[in-house]
Amino acid sequence: MAYAVTEIYEQIRAQALSLTQTQLGVDADPYGLLMEIGYPPAAVSLFSAADGAASLCFSNGGGMIGAGEHQSVAAAAKKFVQAAGLHRHDMGAATEFPLPEPGETRFCVLTATGVLTAAAPEEALGRRRHPLWPLFYAGQDVLTAMRETQQLG
Fold first, then answer.
1. Which end of the chain is more exposed for a tag (fewer CB within 10 A), N or C?
2. Can you give the C-alpha Rg of the chain in angstroms?
3. Which residues, listed in sequence order, are joined to residue 48 by a DSSP beta bridge?
């Protein structure tokens, strides 16, 4: 593996990927997703849920848990999950969830029938040269809202 990975990160990531609609208390489908971006020192995992929950974790430690308590973050997280529903056709079912390679972005979408995944080069997403670019930018909106809450707090 290209990254240092802490035990707590592995636990949080596994918990996010195994979360159910019942545990969240929502009927939405999809009901959550991870957007994971690979950077040379670490993988970054952004989790968002249909109820507005949002957390950010770094494979080498640290992050922001419970950011969805802020209204702006919750709104962006909900939009991100809704956007994932528009891109089901761009993803495939999976039962294994490797971390992205450096320079790659991976999406893991939690649905009533299982987890859908897709990966793409971050550069292609950022330049809007991949079908999943709208989903990537919806995730960036969540990250922006998180940063803004840190600056305000």
1. C
2. 14
3. 33, 54
- Indicate the SS3 state at residue 96: coil
147: Cα separation from own chain's centroid: 16
Helix (H, G, I), strand (E, B) or coil at 25: coil
- CA triplet 82, 88, 91: central angle to 5 degrees? 130
Q: What is the pLDDT of residues 107-126, one digit of tens each?
A: 999 999 999 999 999 999 99
Among the listed residues 28, 27, 13, the one whose alpha carbon sits nearest the alpha carbon of residue 108 = 13
Count of Cβ atoms closer than 10 Å to residue 93 Cβ: 10
Is this structure's pTM higher than 0.85?
A: yes
Model pLDDT for residues 17-71, shown as the tens digit of each residue: 999 999 999 999 999 999 999 998 999 999 999 999 999 999 999 999 999 999 9
Q: Tell me if 65 sits within 8 A of 55, measured CB to CB.
A: yes
Joined tokens for residue 69: 């308590």
Nearest Cα to Cα of residue 81 among 110, 104, 56, 55: 110
Spatial separation of the C-alpha atoms in residues 153 and 150, rounded to whole Å = 5
